[in-house]
Amino acid sequence: MKKTFLIPIVLLILTACQQEDYSPMTVTMYNQANDAIGTAKLSESADGVSVELSAEGLEPGLHGIHVHEYAKCDPPDFQSAGNHYNPDGKEHGLMHPEGSHLGDMPNIEVDGDGTVEAELLVPGATLTEGNYSLLQGEGTSIVIHEKQDDGVSQPSGDAGKRIACGLITVEEANEETAPSDPTANNKEEE
After folding, report:
1. Rounded mean pLDDT of 150-154?
2. What is the mean pLDDT of the segment spanning 176-186?
3. Count of domains for the chain
4. By the 8 A CB rule, do 92 and 99 touch?
5. What is the reported pTM?
6. Which reaction equations make up its catalytic activity (predicted)?
């Protein structure tokens, strides 16, 4: 009798302790006019969170891209996203000897036609629970800047204005249908 009673309790406890799995999740990226310009697919990996970025309508060249501390993307300046995500209080920059912010990523290169396809990594980050979760609290955001990040300047790499933003939230993770391919419009127009 006692064993029969204990089994449901143990199962209930184990179920309650399981972490939600939000990987992979698709984040919709918006420009300053609040138009959807692409997606960032985030996936849990052994080394952190992998980011597969696909976007259009950007100026050709190098652009800084970072995870920011708040899940807010109020256009047109996206200042509501706050600073770079930095739970350890480090200096900014992948090349800084005392850096880097957890949200720092390598620059992306936008092609001459305004499109970008890039694979990035947020080392040490996670989409589950923990101190380095991109989903902790209300979540975070991913921001593309108008210029390249120089990798050392404080506090944000002299990357210029924020030109695109997407929310990294549990709500985004729970969206049932991912947005369509943002470059599909280009193919149809040709």
Report:
1. 68
2. 51
3. 1
4. yes
5. 0.79
6. 2 superoxide + 2 H(+) = H2O2 + O2
